[in-house]
Design brief:
This protein has two domains: 145 residues, Aspartate Aminotransferase, domain 1 (Alpha-Beta Complex); 233 residues, Type I PLP-dependent aspartate aminotransferase-like (Major domain) (Aspartate Aminotransferase, domain 2). It is 40% helix and 14% strand. The protein contains twelve helices and twelve strands. The structure holds pyridoxal-5'-phosphate.
Amino acid sequence: MSSKIAKRMQDISSFYVMALLNRAKQLESLGRDVIHMEIGEPDFPTPPTIIAAGINLLQTGDVKYTPAAGLPELRQKIACFYQSQYAVDVAAERIFITPGASGAFLLALGISLNPGEELLMADPCYPCNSNFASLYGAIARSLPVDADSAYQLTAAQIKHHWRGNSKGVLIASPSNPTGTLVSPEALQAVVQTTNALGGCFYSDEIYHGLVYGQTVATALQYSDDVFVINSFSKYFGMTGWRIGWLVVPEEFVEAAEKLAQNIFIATSTHSQYAALAAFDPETLAELECRRAELAARRDFLYAQLLRLGFTIPVKPEGAFYIYADCSRFTDDSYQFALDFLEQEAVAITPGKDFGSHHAHHNLRFAYTTTVDKMAVAMQRLERFINKG
Ligand SMILES: Cc1ncc(COP(=O)(O)O)c(C=O)c1O
């Protein structure tokens, strides 16, 4: 690496799946019909009601900065959403509109983590979080999790691993890559344990709304002393609009305001106006249809992968991912993904994008494409395995 590049970049990793994506694009340009099951966004367009609200604002031409914390009416709508969805009171002043959950993380970790402090998280988990911690000079400490805890950190594990420089705990439920949930009781236990240890608790709730037949709790039901990260990207179908939100504990409001002013000035104005339509009954009705479609896709893919001999120790109940153990077929899931793409033109994500614990024995399949396309992908997978 060039000596001009900041040393901290040595600790920032890129995604292995990018190599696969580049190859997938090359194959497509050569005329191959690539099926994408690596992508973390469904094939649905943004709901028309949201698009219309964004266009209305753009047509006024009045696309100025909003307050750093976000449009007051949007913060208020989110506060009402917490009341209607989870029956919790959250003051709108604690809600910050951010450029996606990614911006929410940058803000949350920036106002709470000192250099050298540890952030405990699960392995496997969404990889950007550990990179954000490194960016602030903090230490991401990944703790291996297995099927017995639905791939989620437990209160006992947090207590056991907590030490002098530990500062925070991050949980994502539903999880990326496993699609598994932390139960309300287990969430309460991890929140209360972290609070009792004097640490910061970060709850990544970006896949809330995309849960199939289970109850999901927000960390805010158990404590006001938590950071909650959420987004309009996934459930609301707004990935490219770059808008999400962060709920901070009362004592962090001023710090969050100050850092948001500096790092973002504000989240994109038309996206905020568009998001005002996200909670309209018409939009929510459309989103619920999509959720039903995703549930059907999950059922299809889950059954197919089991039929083909993959092991899925915990049935995924949320998000749009299945994390499948492929040890029956390979000891190198990355090579498996590369070969599968090359030979059968189906893109999936290797386990090592999410950590190191049993990563070489796992693959993440995203059901972000139609059942018809997945059916073809499964035929190709069957042929690929049988060749192997
Ligand atoms: C678990 C998790 N958290 C956060 C993000 C960031 O999402 P965004 O910045 O689009 O809101 C993602 C994106 O895939 C994710 O899977």
